[in-house]
Amino acid sequence: MIDQIHDLQQVYRNILHSMSRPGNISKLNSITKKLKEEFPCNHAFFLSALTFLDAEVTFHVIANEVKKERLTEIISSYTMSKTDTVDQADFILMLQDAPEYQIEQAFIECKVGNLRDPQLSATWILESDLLSNSAGLSLSGPGINGVQQLQTGLSPSFWQKRNEKVKEYPLGIDVILADFSSQVACIPRTTSVMITEVV
C-alpha cells in the first residue's frame, strides 16, 4: 500500500503544479503502481481524493448507485471524511458514468463561495478519459503562456456549465481531472475555457 505521508505529499505537489499551470498534465505512475486493490474509480482519481479529503472536510459522490455507495464507503474509511449533500459538500467526486441529471443538479447546487470567503467553494475531482494536450478545450489565463490545449473527453455541455459557475470571479469552482493512465490536470476558476471541439 502507499505511504500516506510521503506518497500523498508527492501527489499534492503534482496537483499543485498542475493547478498553478492549468492544462499542464502531471503523471502519478510511480505512486499508482503501488495500488494493488481494485476501486470503483481509477487510481489517479482515488489518490487525488485521498490527498485532499480528511475529517475536516466533506464530500459528495456523483456516480451510478452501485459505485456511489462503494466509493463513499471506501473514501470515508480511508480519509475519515464525511459525506454530505451536494449543496454543502467541500468536494464533489464525479465518476465517468455519472448520470447527466445528477451532474446538472450538482452544478445548480454546489458551493461557489461568497465575496468575503470565496475559498468556501466546492472543488470537483473528475474521472476523465485519457488527458492530452490536443484540441478539445483552449485554456487561457493566469499560469498559461498564451493558450493551452486540453482534451478531457468530457462533454462540451459540462464545460458550458462550468463556465457559468465561474462567471462571477472570485466565486466559482476548481476542477481536478484524473484519467485511467495515472495522469492529472487542473482547471482552476481563474482559467478561461473555450470549447473548440464540436460534437
Q: Biggest sheet: strands side by side, in what order?
A: 1-9-8-5-4-2-3
Q: What is the terminal separation in angstroms?
A: 41 Å
What is the SS-derived class? Answer: alpha/beta
Radius of gyration, taken over Cα atoms and rounded to an integer in Å: 16 Å
Uncertain spans, ≥5 residues at pLDDT below 50? none
Helix content, binned percent: 25-40%
Biggest sheet record = 7 strands, mixed
Report the mean per-residue pLDDT as an integer: 96
Helix and strand element order: HEHHEHEEHEEEHEEE
Q: Give the beta-strand count.
A: 10
How would you sum up the global shape? globular
- Count of alpha and pi helical runs: 6
Percent range for β-strand residues: 15-25%
Please characterize this protein's 3D structure.
- The chain has 199 residues and is of the alpha/beta class.
- 32% of the residues lie in helices and 24% in strands.
- It has six helices and ten strands, in the order αβααβαββαβββαβββ.
- The strands form two sheets. It has a seven-stranded mixed sheet with strand order 1-9-8-5-4-2-3, with helices on both faces. A three-stranded antiparallel sheet has the order 7-6-10, covered by helices on one side.
- A hairpin with a 7-residue loop joins β6 and β7.
- α1 packs across α3.
- The protein is globular and about 40 Å long.
- The N and C termini lie far apart (41 Å).
- The mean pLDDT is 96.
